[in-house]
Amino acid sequence: MIPYGSLVVYVTPNKDRRYIKRLEEGQDWHSNDGVLSAEAVHDASFGSEVRTSLDIPIRVLEATLHDRLKGLKRQTQIIYPKDIAYICLRLGAGPGRTIIEAGCGSGGLTTGLSWFCGPTGRVVSHEAREEFMKLARRNLEWAGVGDNVEIVHRDIADGFCIDNADALFLDVRTPWEYLDHAVKAVKPGATFGFLVPTVDQVSKLLMGLEKGPFADIEVCEILMRNWKPVADRLRPEDRMNAHTGFLIFCRHQERSADFEYSRPLGTRQRKQEAARQARLAESGANPYDDGETAGDDE
Length: 298
Hints:
Elements: E1 7-11, E2 18-22, E3 29-31, E4 34-36, H1 38-43, E5 48-51, E6 57-62, H2 65-70, H3 81-91, E7 98-102, H4 108-117, E8 122-127, H5 130-143, E9 149-153, E10 165-170, H6 179-184, E11 186-196, H7 199-209, E12 214-220, E13 227-228, E14 235-236, E15 246-252, H8 257-261, H9 267-283
Parallel strand pairs: 7-8, 7-10, 8-9, 10-11
Antiparallel strand pairs: 1-2, 1-6, 3-4, 5-6, 11-15, 12-15, 13-14
Helix pairs in contact: 3-4
GO biological process, one term: tRNA methylation
GO molecular function, one term: tRNA (adenine(58)-N1)-methyltransferase activity
Keywords: Methyltransferase, S-adenosyl-L-methionine, Transferase, tRNA processing
């Protein structure tokens, strides 16, 4: 039996269209294929078929996290499931972990973080716009998660509301402006993640990261191409989920000139390091904690 209150995916024979609905007692599902009785769905099991009033079979499936993410109401561009999965892995979202997020928007990533962190984890999301806070909270409740989520109405220009977090993710327009606040909000060695849509933003963020206690920097984008599941005519789909944003990850790491100087550098890398040192000198920044400059002779 499928419990009332469950999120159920209905799949129709017409082009395998999918609809995600909450099963409520006495609330039948009306569609172009006829009426699907809530009682009949309740008496069925996931993975079975139930017939409508027009005798059309409807498949009933349990809603996975992927289904729930795709079913969220949105007023903002949400982060795609393909990106959410990798973000959660890179941040180490899981039981007992505390993850900071800003801003939450429609709550797509918040939903994923809440799912992975579970009852013993904690997600603290910061959002400057109250209407997005309300939408994100509604989406969390609809998706059946969120008990471990605190959404704070706060502009992160004023700093984050907690410290000693295990990881932090920023989905804001100018993340480089908040790096000092971010460092104060996490444990030593914590993971940071960022999402920005343009190359120019990536460059500005990288310049910000090179001035502070950050290392193990990664810049990537995740492209997903489906293939048509036809055994004797296997080929790619005509469309794909290509660029949706740049993901940048790094670790909180106190840096020293001694460590950097110990790296074996080729000709190109030496030129890149010299250019970086020139930028740092021009800005007056020194990311090293020993007062030295990488590459100085001893």
